[in-house]
């Protein structure tokens, strides 16, 4: 770190971790389905469980240090687990939980970035020495193995000339190493918090659908990181442009829907409606017009054809549309009732629902 031109940074996050254990069942089997990573996401903290070959489970609790410090008695610990992880209490066992929790202190989590990775042609750091990361993407060892693969490819390309290999490795590998460090940090937020949000789950389903439709063009982030040789930088870049496409498509869809709704309202409001409210006078006149009490208030649009026929209904949710309004209009005018007075009201540009 004292060498001139050597950039170095380390970041300790405010969360620590502590390991617990779920033993096998009495008949020696796994206590949970063994082919899954089990996660208990709780917003600001989480717990995960990974299966072991002896059919036990390594349980890791990730939580802010101040939360660990607050659980300073067995009673507080058991109460906390019963509130946040009630199913885990029975799996771990209350006595074993207390024993394992207070047997050690929570450990720290750190992310390390530095460059360059070499000194001249004599020394090179790889793996955690060059790019330690938090464990939430499960890529620490994989990134170290990838360092070895890339170094071997460069050795072959430059005929083992370390004066060319080492600078090239530092230059090409640093960007990818920092990308996976950032992705690992992001995945902690995803695992403990985002997986509980409907919008995130919907996006995951959409990613799966698009990946099924376009397997070469649309590769989800986790798939590209875990199951391909795509560079971590490219994985991160794909995540960013995919997010932009989803965001812009959503904005476009909302804009189109609003435009359609605006056009609908404009057309609707451009057609004046006539509403006849019920009154004893209208009751007498509607009988003459062939309408009954259940058919009012009557609503019609000027675009409707008006005929002297019995009234018809559109649905129970709307007022009926009276097709005998012409006869009713004539009867009202003969009785001296003018538009805008008494029971006859004209609504121009008003929704008549």
UniProtKB/TrEMBL annotation:
Keywords: FAD, Flavoprotein, Membrane, Monooxygenase, NADP, Oxidoreductase, Transmembrane, Transmembrane helix. The keyword Membrane applies. InterPro entries: FAD-bd, FAD/NAD-bd_sf. It holds the Pfam family FAD_binding_3. GO terms for biological process: kynurenine metabolic process. Residues 76-151 form the FAD-binding domain. Its cofactor is FAD. The chain crosses the membrane at residues 249-267. One of its GO terms (cellular component) is mitochondrial outer membrane. One of its GO terms (molecular function) is FAD binding. The keyword Iron does not apply. This is FAD-binding domain-containing protein.
């Amino acid at each position: 770190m004292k060498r001139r031109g050597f950039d170095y940074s380390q970041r300790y996050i405010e969360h620590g971790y502590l390991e617990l254990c779920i033993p096998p069942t009495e008949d020696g089997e796994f206590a949970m389905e063994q082919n899954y990573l089990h996660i208990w996401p709780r917003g600001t903290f989480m717990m995960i469980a990974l299966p072991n070959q002896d059919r036990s489970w390594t349980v890791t609790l990730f939580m802010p240090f101040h939360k660990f410090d607050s659980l300073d008695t067995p009673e507080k610990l058991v109460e906390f687990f019963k509130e946040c992880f009630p199913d885990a209490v029975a799996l771990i066992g209350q006595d074993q939980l207390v024993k394992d929790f207070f047997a050690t202190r929570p450990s720290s989590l750190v992310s390390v970035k530095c460059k360059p990775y070499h000194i001249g042609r004599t020394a090179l750091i790889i793996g955690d020495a060059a790019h330690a990361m938090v464990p939430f993407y499960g890529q620490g060892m994989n990134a170290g193995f990838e360092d070895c693969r890339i170094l071997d490819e460069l050795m072959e390309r430059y005929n083992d000339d370390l004066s060319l290999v080492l600078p090239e490795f530092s230059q090409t590998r640093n960007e990818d190493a920092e990308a996976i460090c950032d992705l690992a940090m992001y995945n902690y937020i995803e695992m403990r918090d985002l997986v509980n949000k409907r919008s995130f789950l919907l996006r995951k389903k959409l990613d799966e659908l698009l990946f099924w439709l376009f397997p070469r063009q649309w590769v989800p982030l986790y798939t590209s990181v875990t199951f391909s040789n795509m560079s971590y930088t490219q994985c991160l870049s794909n995540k960013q442009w995919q997010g932009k496409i989803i965001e812009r498509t959503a904005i476009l869809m909302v804009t189109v829907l609003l435009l359609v709704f605006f056009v609908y309202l404009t057309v609707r409001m451009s057609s004046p409606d006539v509403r006849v409210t019920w009154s004893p006078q209208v009751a007498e006149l509607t009988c003459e017009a062939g309408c009954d009490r259940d058919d009012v208030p009557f609503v019609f649009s000027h675009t409707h054809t008006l005929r002297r026929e019995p009234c018809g209904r559109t649905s129970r949710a709307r007022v009926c549309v009276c097709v005998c309004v012409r006869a009713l209009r004539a009867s009202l005018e003969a009785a001296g009732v003018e538009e805008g007075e008494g029971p006859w009201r004209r609504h121009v540009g008003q929704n008549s629902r």
